[in-house]
């Protein structure tokens, strides 16, 4: 059959192709309240050009969306962010950043489906937002680690004080990070993978 005039669909770019050595892939979700750095984290650590679904914030969001501490933020994720990082030659992580605005949280259930683990990003200026986030993960049985993103005007607290304030069990890792830095974001993911490995070794990971 002759398809004259049909347009050839290009294949993926070389840098976007999955490494031929990859044997295992895992889905990881990056969660947290509005403006905590989820999109930035996915973008800084992804080895492929990240997919984002950011839309410009408008007057309609005034009184609905909580942009405390993010007055200069002009866009928000409305569906998800997506990226990929190779941890070893055999292991690849697919990263899904969730929308932070509460009115888009109905999308979380779909994003949590099949997730091996999660990173909970928190802003110490708005710790109360983290309770709903962690509660949803616990309801779904998704193991998580907590990463405290550094903001210039955010108060700093000892990790044990934060653990107590967030009501975290001793086994859940908590660490400081700067999601703008690739190495820092990668360290968070490596901490999550070590935590998941420890759960698997003890039979706690189902």
Question: How would you characterize this protein structure?
Answer:
With 206 residues, the protein is an alpha/beta fold. 26% of the residues lie in helices and 21% in strands. The chain is globular and about 45 Å long. Residues 55-64 have low confidence and may be disordered. It is built from 5 helices and 8 strands; from the N terminus they run E-H-E-E-E-E-H-E-H-E-H-E-H.
- Spatial order of strands in the largest sheet: 4-5-1-6-7-8
Secondary-structure element order, as H and E?
EHEEEEHEHEHEH
Q: Helix proportion of residues, in percent?
A: 25-40%
- Sequence stretches where pLDDT stays below 50 over 5 or more residues: 55-64
Number of helices: 5
How does the overall form come out from the CA principal axes? globular
Euclidean distance between termini CA atoms? 50 Å
- State the secondary-structure class: alpha/beta
């Amino acid at each position: 059959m002759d398809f004259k005039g049909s347009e050839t669909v290009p294949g993926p770019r070389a840098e976007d192709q999955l490494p031929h050595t990859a044997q295992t892939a895992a889905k990881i979700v990056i969660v947290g309240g509005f403006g905590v750095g989820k999109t930035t984290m996915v973008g800084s650590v992804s080895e492929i050009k990240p997919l984002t679904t950011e839309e410009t914030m408008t007057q309609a969001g005034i009184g609905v969306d909580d942009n405390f501490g993010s007055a200069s933020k002009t866009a928000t994720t409305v569906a998800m962010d997506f990226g990929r990082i190779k941890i070893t030659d055999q292991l690849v992580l697919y990263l899904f950043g969730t929308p932070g605005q509460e009115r888009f949280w109905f999308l979380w259930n779909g994003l949590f489906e099949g997730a091996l683990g999660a990173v909970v990003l928190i802003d110490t200026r708005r710790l109360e937002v983290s309770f709903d986030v962690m509660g949803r993960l616990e309801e779904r049985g998704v193991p998580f680690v907590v990463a405290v993103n550094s903001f210039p005007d955010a108060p700093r607290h000892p990790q044990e004080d934060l653990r107590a304030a967030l009501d975290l069990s001793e086994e859940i890792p908590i660490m400081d990070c700067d999601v703008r830095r690739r190495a820092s974001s990668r360290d968070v993911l490596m901490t999550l993978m070590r935590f998941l490995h420890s759960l698997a070794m003890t039979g706690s990971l189902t």
